[in-house]
TrEMBL record, chains A, B, C, D:
Protein name: Chorismate synthase
Positions bound to NADP(+): 48, 54
Organism: Winogradskyella rapida
InterPro entries in alphabetical order: Chorismate_synth, Chorismate_synth_AroC_sf, Chorismate_synthase_CS
Example of a GO MF term: chorismate synthase activity
Subunit structure: Homotetramer.
Positions bound to FMN: 125-127, 239-240, 280, 295-299, 321
Pathways involved: Metabolic intermediate biosynthesis; chorismate biosynthesis; chorismate from D-erythrose 4-phosphate and phosphoenolpyruvate: step 7/7
Amino acid sequence: MAGNSFGKLFKLTTFGESHGAAIGGVIDGCPAGIELDFEAIQNELNRRKPGQSKIVTQRKEPDTVEFYSGIFEGVTTGTPIGFVIHNTNQKSKDYSHIKDVYRPSHADYTYDKKYGVRDYRGGGRSSARETASRVVAGAIAKQFISTIDINAFTSSVGDIFIDKPYQDLDFNLIESNVIRCPDEATAAKMISKIEAIKKQGDTIGGTITCVIKNVPVGLGEPVFDKLHAELGKAMLSINAVKGFEYGSGFCGAKMTGSDHNDLFNNDGTTKTNLSGGIQGGISNGMDIYFRVAFKPVATVIQKQEALNSQGELVEMQGKGRHDPCVVPRAVPIVEAMTALVIADQILLRRQESREW
Amino acid sequence: MAGNSFGKLFKLTTFGESHGAAIGGVIDGCPAGIELDFEAIQNELNRRKPGQSKIVTQRKEPDTVEFYSGIFEGVTTGTPIGFVIHNTNQKSKDYSHIKDVYRPSHADYTYDKKYGVRDYRGGGRSSARETASRVVAGAIAKQFISTIDINAFTSSVGDIFIDKPYQDLDFNLIESNVIRCPDEATAAKMISKIEAIKKQGDTIGGTITCVIKNVPVGLGEPVFDKLHAELGKAMLSINAVKGFEYGSGFCGAKMTGSDHNDLFNNDGTTKTNLSGGIQGGISNGMDIYFRVAFKPVATVIQKQEALNSQGELVEMQGKGRHDPCVVPRAVPIVEAMTALVIADQILLRRQESREW
Amino acid sequence: MAGNSFGKLFKLTTFGESHGAAIGGVIDGCPAGIELDFEAIQNELNRRKPGQSKIVTQRKEPDTVEFYSGIFEGVTTGTPIGFVIHNTNQKSKDYSHIKDVYRPSHADYTYDKKYGVRDYRGGGRSSARETASRVVAGAIAKQFISTIDINAFTSSVGDIFIDKPYQDLDFNLIESNVIRCPDEATAAKMISKIEAIKKQGDTIGGTITCVIKNVPVGLGEPVFDKLHAELGKAMLSINAVKGFEYGSGFCGAKMTGSDHNDLFNNDGTTKTNLSGGIQGGISNGMDIYFRVAFKPVATVIQKQEALNSQGELVEMQGKGRHDPCVVPRAVPIVEAMTALVIADQILLRRQESREW
Amino acid sequence: MAGNSFGKLFKLTTFGESHGAAIGGVIDGCPAGIELDFEAIQNELNRRKPGQSKIVTQRKEPDTVEFYSGIFEGVTTGTPIGFVIHNTNQKSKDYSHIKDVYRPSHADYTYDKKYGVRDYRGGGRSSARETASRVVAGAIAKQFISTIDINAFTSSVGDIFIDKPYQDLDFNLIESNVIRCPDEATAAKMISKIEAIKKQGDTIGGTITCVIKNVPVGLGEPVFDKLHAELGKAMLSINAVKGFEYGSGFCGAKMTGSDHNDLFNNDGTTKTNLSGGIQGGISNGMDIYFRVAFKPVATVIQKQEALNSQGELVEMQGKGRHDPCVVPRAVPIVEAMTALVIADQILLRRQESREW
């Protein structure tokens, strides 16, 4: 119940703090018989890892995952997959200045009030370092659901947006630039924007769009566990996320029914897809697409007023190695969480068929 | 796992179809010793019930709830509260025309593909009639967490928005008009808009804003069960919802960190509240506020092309009694789901204290 | 979490007190497309119901179940099945004498200490009346897993035991006598024993054996959710149960490995079956069999000392209509819980297959 | 759902195979602020570890636990506790002879049929080596519930039983002999018995009794999650367990109600305790006691017929390092599982109080 597990049948439990000995997790419920591509797993970790480009944090972590169980001769055995990523580049001294200080818009204050004790180094458990474990599990989930395509990309940084529908984008270009935006011209603007923001010691928000193709019809459980509710919760569980919309989203709230309805083709597909591939909480076989809003990183390398545990306001200067914008590194995390949701739904779907 | 339960410790399971004998539910985990105000429960149902005004569906249902267990001499006993609302005004004949037809942007197609059999009358399980059970449970949850204030209201209909921050609104006015908008001038415009749309046999979307006041610090469980992730899932589980944002939301994705950070006051409150009362997934004691997007109702009283189970496109004319806009009736549902989340979190919070 | 739900994928939640308006439940996760035999369901209820013979309680309840949802034109739809059994023969006056009194070896004291408030009439929620809801759900589970045979029977009453292995019994005879013992001579002795005990105003314990045939290989989840652990928990959740053993059980603890091991036949079956059809927590296709111990009913129609809520010892005289021995009515309950476990395991098993 | 987690609020998830790189687990929900005694944790592991005496397996494992998270400066932080025990003394060659062979009464056959792939070395996931992770978690649970006393001991080996009630035993003597029987004379006989059995290359079963003292009133959740049902499931999840009984147990099934009822004292305690400290599934404050049956270890160092994956019966000779009787090493495992159940129940109990 303490909230460190995700999924019902394909289930991930994570552990680990930013500056502890290691982070890691257990995947329980991964089906047996999947021949794993370990390079593909490491590749996903590399997409998330710090130090990969000029526009992300310069902390250096190899982020090498070690698997301890659940795999025999390269194949999943159906038993739980335990894995660990050792932390190697902790610079805990960087954090001594925040030992008794609550940084604004961080989790320092709330963790301290909730637990009465906290590992303050690098944000401890509240650090996005935890998401490396999600990426490992998501990479395995992707291999399980290999016929389904999941592509996330940066759709905006600050007020710079891609101005095309996703159908006009070439997802093969996502990895062609460090911001992970498949529209090259927009990507260049986004990167410049982040570089400028970084120079000011400031940070900036952005959005990520994710598209799921080749989804079978019938995923999602009414009533409370609608497919988009599961996706929404998954996205809202990622650090710094402030909003989620799917299909027509917030724009749909301005529309009329006659404009919004997706008329059918003979084969059950629809002419438009404002529904976003989900109707009544259940996938209808069309593309699922959604958008996730990320706030700007709270650590700015500027002087700011903070609160200490004695209730005094103190001036502090942001230090440490931080991302000026989380979005490029969050792209593989969005994909990982999406893969975890879909893998879980595939398992749920399997058991509800009428024959046995 | 089939998705008809909500909550971990304060747990609701619902059942029932739009045109079956009855809908209802079981609340398991409601603490013992709460003296229930049954009139308050019925009042919440009345806020949701059909036929309450000109701008909602004209189906007539008394929506009287009967409690079968878990209450003794007016007081909760800690055992499960079973309750039932009998359906009285089913006009199933209204639905014979859709027996073999999948209406556009409804759940007809996906339910049929998922289950292979469906109660097509009035949308069956996919009907928002199910939410009456949520309102019953939410009304009890509200009584359990009575020191916490939950107020939802209509913040937009189509392109008509309230143009004030919620702090400038008087929540006592929410019930003063049929659209449940506390800004009288805007409310009038919204109502006119819906009346015009209804005359055209069309429908329109809208948004609801919800504000939670007097929240204790420390609610919410990292990592996957962040407080806003739970609220988001709760909202996304409501029929017709397309998006959720809290605090700065999607606007926050355009901001810089130096503008977005909420600086502290001495007492741990913050000068601004772009965080929306939640930091690191845990409540910080400030107001929690969020916004929910509802699409336009899919049933329009116009001719539309639909698909039948033989794969033929057929012309159909929307019938039945439907809402031109779900938003006014969804206000108590948003509040109910919010109350269920907060009640659940209060129970989770209780058990994590260090003393026993 | 409050403990009124059973099962992971085929999930039952029950509600209701002995003398409330109704008892009932919700079955969530029952697959769609099962054509229900309602007579068979009622027949299971009749096997459990009071007043069915001279050796059980004389409370008269028709125990007629009403289904409110999840079934359309006689077929399950995959949506939750809500059902209710109205209580009709509550004689709450019978219980006024225990309003402030804790009866020995009942749940009166513990419920009062736990919840601080209780429905004392007929034991309230602690009454075995709740098990009628389990029988309804179990009867539906049986229809889902119709190729698997579940037979429970009375194997002892007091010190009268069947002295044959179950393989030598004809399960068709179980319903041929009121004690539900397939060995006619032993059945007669058991019935006489109970009649004698009843005359003394006393009660007596007994055991039930259950045999599951035609079980597929592969049910049960290591490590914590071993198949026999799930069966054991199911049985221990039935009122008055004090023990559970499967296969060789407590006798196995006296044996040597060379005597206890079940040697294989070529086809994977085993020559002996001390394992009880389960190895490593997973079914191996052999018969699963287990034995359940029931204590004597605590309500004796004799003078006994009880405790009142003021901490005084008071003399009380047992009243009401009670079973001199729970075992005959518990036979269908054991079968129902077994069916619920197996149905759940079948669903779990379905989703773990490697193909999709 | 795959069954590798235990507990609802104090939750353990384990991973690891007998001969993999490591075993370990994650404890989620352990309250913050517990100052851990690491020596006490290691001491529990030492009680379980192989090679500790002549009557257990001679595999040598230091069983040193490493904690990776959830602890800061020796104190629990409320975040998940990840831990690992590296396997050091795997002699996988010992198992090459069973690569394609299903040993009788092991889990080889069922795992293979269930998963289609298996780590055959040392039983893989089905090995009792997994229980080391339980002992780590149980040791932490014990420290959380430190005012509650949990003592397990060997109550029988084969047909050698302690012939005294537990009240006449001195639990301080449990660790005074290698069989962990607090009755010295009986202990000596048990040890001789095991030595004789071992000489024959055979194995023998036994029972463990566990007593919980100083239990608060009110633990346990009706209906399905009765306290003894949770304890029973916990015990039945331990390798080699065939039966569970609490209080009067199977003997209670032979008794009359007038003999079995536990009459009250003025203070709510009872004069006798055939109930075993639990009434209506809820603790009543008296000692909880139960007994667990363990079958003889299936690996005998004798020639036996086994089945290979080609469906041929083959003669095999047991090898490897095995326990002639699991009971002495299972004592700390029984205590660990008991501690996990009680810790979980304490957390559940906390949240149901009426005040907040």
